[in-house]
Structure prediction request, 275 residues.
Amino acid sequence: MSYVNVHSRELPFLTRYIADLFTYRHLCWNLVGADLRARFRRSRLGILWAVIQPLAFALMIAAVWGGMFNVTDYWGFAIYVFSGTILWEFFSNVVVGSQDALKGAEGYLKQTRVPFFIFQLRIPFTSLVILLFAIAGLVMLQAVTQKLPTLGPHLLLVPVFFFVFILFGIPLAVLMSIIGTQYRDVRHISTIAVQALFFLSPVMLQRDILDKPELAFLSYVNPMVPLLDMFRAPLLYSQLWGQSDVIVVSIWIVALWVAALLLSARVGRKLVFAL
Prediction:
C-alpha cells in the first residue's frame, strides 16, 4: 500500500503535518484508553491500583527507612515517599515504555502515513492519567493525616506543574521511541540507568542529603531533582517554586524539545524500515 497523506501534498509540510495530527487525534485517545483498559483489565479495583500500589510502597519504605534514619514524623515521611513514587513512575514509564511506542504501531505505520507523534504521545498521556489518579490518592492521604497544604497562591502552581511535566515528558518520549526503535539494546541500558538514577533522586532519599556540596551537581544533571522539588513545594510545604528549580527545568525542557525535533527531522519516515 502506497504512502499517502490524508491532506493534499501541495500544502506546506508544517500545515499538512498539523492537519494530519488533528485528523488522527481520536486514534491517540483510543490508544490511551486501550492502554488503560489493558493495564487494569479483569481487576476488581481497576484504576484504584494506581493509588494502592505506590501507597503500599510508600508505607513500607516509611516504616523501614524511617526507622533506620530515625524519622520522627512517620506519616509526613510516607507522604513524601508517596509523592516521589508517583512522579517517578511517570518518568520511568516514559523512558522505558516509550521505546515500544513505534514498534507496537508497526501495523499502522507500514500501511498509512499516520504521524509518528500520534503514537509517541501514547505513553506520556497514559502515564499522566495514572498520575492524576495517584495525586488524588495523595491528597486524600494528606486529608486523612491532617497534612493538607494551607490555602494560598502556591496552590495555583499545581495545575501549572502538570503542564510543565507533560512538556518535559513528551520530547523525552519522542527521543526514546526513536532511539529504542533503532537500537534495541537501549531498552536494557535505560532500565539499568533508570534504576541507578532512582537512588540518586529524592524519591525516598531525604532531600537534605542532596544539599551536600559534593552532591549539589545532581540538582542540575538529574532533572527529576528540581521536578520533584517543584511538585512538592506547593502540595507538601505550601511554598512557591524556587527560582533555580524553574531555571533548570526550563533548560531541560528546551534542550529535550530541540533534540527531539532535530532527531525526528533527521530520521524522518525512514524509521519505518527499522520496525
User: Anything to note?
Assistant: Residues 13-274 form one domain. The mean pLDDT is 87. The radius of gyration is 20 Å. Residues 66 and 73 are 8 Å apart (CA to CA).
